[in-house]
Design brief:
By secondary structure, the chain is an alpha+beta fold. Helices cover 57% and strands 9% of the residues. The protein has a 6-stranded antiparallel sheet with strand order 2-1-3-4-5-6. Helix 8 packs antiparallel against helix 9 and helix 9 packs antiparallel against helix 10. The protein is flat, with a radius of gyration of 46 Å. The relative contact order is 0.04.
Length: 381
Amino acid sequence: MQIDRLYTEPATIEPVIFDAGVNVILGESDDTSSKNNGVGKSLCIEFLNFALLKRKSESRVAKIPKATFDPSIFICVDFRMNGSRYTIKRSLEHSERPRIVLDGQETNFAKIEDATQFLTSRMFPDGKTPPVGFREILGPLIRDERSEFKSIVSCFDTRFRIPDNYAPHLMLLGIDLGIYRVIKDIQKELDAIGTEEGRIKDSVQLVRQKNLDEARSDLNVLDEEVEAIREGIDALENSPAYDIVKGEILDIEHRMAELRSRKEVLVRRSASMAPIAVEPNIDSNEVRDFYDQMRSGLGTSIVRELDEVLAFKARSSSSNVICLMRSRESYKWRSGTSTSSWPNSTGVMRSWFRYSTRRANSATSARHTPLFRQRATSSDS
């Protein structure tokens, strides 16, 4: 892989040209200052690393103010790899959607992982499983200056606590990575087991209010109790008396199951009948507000008529009861008999009361139905 040029589109910085061999970036002083610090050496490397698909969250390029550097500007890098020419174009605004130009043909990627996988397959074109990824091999070659240069393997910012990765170094040394991958997988499993063990200890401490050793002793006691119960059940099943009462026990369990089912049915019926037993409550204020929204004054008129209907119903019911009581007393006076001698006198009174109430309701409904219909028709118009 040979890097040729670093630049932007549109041009906002002076292009940086790289030649074959070792290239050294030096900071030049100017008339305003003789210092070589802060002139853009590290930023140049950050631009190069960002263009080579480093994550935006890990790059210091993302910290540049928008007023200083427009996020829509593309940071571009030209390089050669395995005899082909590549150009990667990437902006801060769409950092997850880089563009790669291969031999003059541009491809837009929806995810940065897809672009990385594409370059990995082009880096190892033999069709075999790539030993390392594109970004993995660039890790040791483009070290982060905040890695403190304390270790060859630790090439990332020490604040991120990124695990050491020996795969690119072993590949460069020509060592097979198969065994290394197996060891890494085993290490991950051990880490997962350790995490689960810690979670179990915390759960035991929270539930039992004891440490793991004390909880283990409680578990042994419970195991002994379970074993004793199991032995008792086995002894009962092997007893001759068990065969005698076994049928009765099964019959009782069957009856209990039937009673439970019947109870559930009765509970459902009771729940469905509960709303019927509740006397409906008509809120006159709600009726008036509803019809007043439809037409001014309509709600007041309807509520007044509704109140009259309810009052008439109450007077009619009271009159029917009074008439029934008077008829009963008159019959008692004429016949000289007591009401206790009436056959099912309470049932007769209830039947007469329901009959009178239905007649009063029917008459009231017949008299007031045209009024409601007329109000509703006026409202619709």
